[in-house]
Design brief:
mainly alpha; about 0% strand
Length: about 250
């Protein structure tokens, strides 16, 4: 657990330090960076408070086809609620920040918010015994939040409403795809602790046993794809920092 927590902190710190160096013009003040990260962490607290009153829980759709169960559970109990909360706290934290002046600034601020959310959420899961080193080295929320910042920045630059819609819709869809195979697999076998104690005969008698291998393959493909997408996105941030896109100033609101 300690190793996973240290790995989580190291990955997030390195990404944050790297993207902050890509800001053009005046760098973000320490106060601004701390606010971005803390507001991201606030999103986790709001999400966990919301889960206490939600009528739909993680096992609500268990017993259904694992693909359907995984999609609905990921969409309703994770991606939809988490991304809406992150969208709200993200807009609040940059709303009157005079240091956010161009499109690239929005993206960098969004990534910092995603890092705050990632750190607190994964540390919480670690203390609950549900965290793994995979979560530590694959911070999906940084990618989801970066995508949100990309489209929201475009909305602020162009004034086009479609980018406001995309700034929320695309992260929700990507987040759902990221979670659905793992959740669908859990709907078949239960937790990893349950899987460890099951025999081959018991495994073959599970409902939807034939879905196990496709769900495992899907989960692996999605995790590898997310890691590649995150690396490519961060490289694009570096490229945007070096070219004319940095000149796209935000419209005043």
């Amino acid at each position: 657990m300690i190793f996973a927590a240290l790995a989580q902190f190291a990955v997030c710190f390195l990404i944050l330090a790297w993207v902050l160096r890509k800001k053009t013009g005046e760098p973000y003040s320490r106060k601004a960076v701390i606010r971005f990260v803390l507001f991201g962490a606030l999103g986790v607290i709001l999400f966990f408070c919301l889960t206490l009153v939600l009528p739909i829980q993680e096992d609500t759709f268990y017993g259904m086809n694992p693909i359907i169960s995984g999609f609905l559970t990921a969409l309703i109990t994770a991606s939809l609620t988490e991304e809406i909360i992150k969208y709200i706290v993200f807009r609040l934290v940059i709303r009157k920040n005079r240091e956010v002046v161009c499109w690239l600034d929005v993206i960098i601020a969004a990534i910092a918010v995603g890092i705050g959310f990632t750190l607190l959420e994964d540390v919480t899961y670690l203390f609950e015994g549900a965290g793994t080193i995979v979560r530590a080295i694959l911070p999906g929320h940084i990618l989801f939040q970066g995508i949100m910042g990309y489209y929201y920045g475009k909305a602020r630059v162009t004034g086009q409403f479609k980018f406001h819609v995309l700034s929320l819709a695309v992260p929700i869809l990507v987040h759902t795809a990221f979670d659905m195979f793992i959740i669908g697999l859990m709907s078949v076998v239960g937790s990893t602790k349950d899987l460890a104690g099951i025999t081959a005969d018991q495994l073959s008698n599970l409902p939807y046993y034939s879905y196990l291998i496709p769900m495992v393959i899907g989960a692996i493909v999605v995790m590898i794809g997310t890691l590649i997408a995150l690396i490519l996105f961060l490289r694009k941030v570096g490229a945007w920092s070096r070219n004319g896109d940095k000149q796209e100033l935000l419209q005043q609101q």
